[in-house]
Amino acid sequence: QVQLVESGGGLVQAGGSLRLSCAASGSSGIFNAMGWYRQAPGNQRELVATITFSGSINYVESVKGRFTISRDNAKKSVYLQMNSLKPEDTAVYYCYARRIPWEYWGQGTQVTVSS
Q1: What is the Cα–Cα distance from 60 to 2, expressed in whole angstroms?
Q2: Rounded to an integer, what is the distance from CA 96 to the centroid of its chain?
Q3: Alpha-carbon distance values, 94 to 84, 102, 115 (Å)
């Protein structure tokens, strides 16, 4: 049973930084991709950033230049460094992992950016 455990969310002022971490447990295989999604109240869940096992990266346009995704395959972990945070980044952030054909989700961590 794969479990994804996130950490690093919290409250920060606009312009500040946070670093999210996600570690997978209960798995002995490779994840084809890992990443982060977010969901703000009243909105659909949206992709923030993903990274494949080989290191290919994809960002949603609104975070390009501010967020950096990375992963440690040996630790089965993925990270999201968030800089220059804006109030519109406020959401619950979910860790995501894919091992074709399965997908796994973390429980979510709240990120709140005050203006």
Answers
A1: 26
A2: 7
A3: 20, 16, 23
- Cβ neighbours of residue 23 closer than 8 Å, sequence gap 6 or more: 4, 5, 75, 76, 77
What percent helix, strand, coil does the chain show, rounded to 5? 5, 55, 40
Residue whose structure tokens are 């969901």: 39
Q: For the chain, how many residues are written?
A: 115
DSSP conformational letter for 102: E
Phi/psi-derived region of residue 4, left when phi > 0, alpha when psi is between -120 and 50, beta in every other case = beta
Residues 3-61 pLDDT 10s: 999 999 999 999 999 999 999 988 778 899 999 999 999 999 999 999 999 999 999 99
| Residue type (1 letter), 45 | R
What residues have CB less than 8 Å from 108, skipping those under 6 apart? 6, 39, 92, 93, 94
For 28, 33, 67, the CA distances from 75, given in Å and listed in that order, are: 11, 14, 21
